[in-house]
């Protein structure tokens, strides 16, 4: 494949210079790349692996539903903050040492989560787990572009795409199965064996490099500090905003001010310092700018849909964790077959058009879910989930090629950091926005339905009479009590219908967001074979 950047993202020298003279990577090189992909897969998997099991975890550590979502969010905060720092710290501590250290810390913090007994310690351990896991994502991407010859980079990118799209889709499936059969603690032990395989393989295949601790004096520490504070505060606003009615809460207002001031300072610093942490001016480049917009919107939809589906099945259909996982498996499993075929497709068609088709199919799958009813459950989600899997399989590899294909090799590290960070940030924003949409639209639909469900309508009186009769036949001897239970049951039916309609509206939102992503892709240019991709 000729339209992929083939320059190092985090290391100033190639990890294995021998590949420059051959068309095929050695067995040892492929072992190293595949080991890195294990790390990226596990890191992304752990964003969503708790989604189907939150109720079980909340009960285990003694916290309420309102706070339990921090179990996922704290992990995501750690990832978002560390991703743009990875290029810098891998130069300071050496690529090999930095990756091995985080490959060891990631499962250790994961196992520590299983032994927590309160929300505070769980949030701390999940945050540290995310901080270690977030390193593994861009570094796996780096290894594709530094260790594989140009002819094989499309295969490496397809494997990376499998990690990014398949992992969040299959995460709730794995989490649900482990929770129902072995307890929620098993979710956090699942990282141990794959991480051990990864570390051993990388230990023997990555060459040793000296550390460069002198770079610590040249670090953009003001940028690092303002970015870390700003992103953490922003994520906290997104997480707590819906629960606290957004800016009606003084706490949310204060956090929003901290986020706005810190991120504004960060942008100002990055545009002025000689060696910025992130080269934000890259966003003015046409392909990278529009490609990054599409990447953010795809992240919104990818992580948002994986958040919405378990929530719908759990809240509206009362599925347990394992049942939720079985439904979501059909969003993930087809991608195992489809993503490996994408490099072949990219040899025949322009990458931007493949990405456009994939995003459009993804959007169509969301619009298939906008008319859900109380009978709309696992069986009805089967076809939309398979359509979603087809769309997602066609998106990430060509989108990455289009976004990074025109970037100058010397700017590749900065471009990768921006792209990976903003994709995850888009997912965090998507989760928060969709949670708010559910709440607000449920209230809206409940009010609309409630205006029609009045005792002045004969259908309502008939329904209450039938329900009262039913309760009296099933052990409620007092007519007044039976009548009260009938009214309660009718109210519950109204709330369930309003909730389902609220979820339907979120799928419409995701569909429209993806439509904007597809439009953004059309503004990119074809990546030429003689551009950055061919610069060796």
UniProtKB/TrEMBL annotation:
Please list every transmembrane segment annotated in the UniProt record, as residue ranges: 28-49, 69-90, 97-117, 123-145, 157-178, 184-206, 218-238, 250-269, 290-312, 324-341, 353-370, 498-523
Xref: InterPro entries: EmrB-like, MFS, MFS_dom, MFS_trans_sf
Domain Major facilitator superfamily (MFS) profile: residue ranges: 32-529
Q: Where would you find this protein in the cell? A: Cell membrane
User: Can you name a GO cellular component term?
Assistant: plasma membrane
Q: Which NCBIfam families match?
A: efflux_EmrB
Entry's family note:
Belongs to the major facilitator superfamily. EmrB family.
Q: Which PANTHER family match?
A: MAJOR FACILITATOR SUPERFAMILY MULTIDRUG TRANSPORTER MFSC
Protein name as catalogued: MFS transporter, DHA2 family, multidrug resistance protein
The organism named in the record is Bradyrhizobium erythrophlei
Source organism lineage? Bacteria, Pseudomonadati, Pseudomonadota, Alphaproteobacteria, Hyphomicrobiales
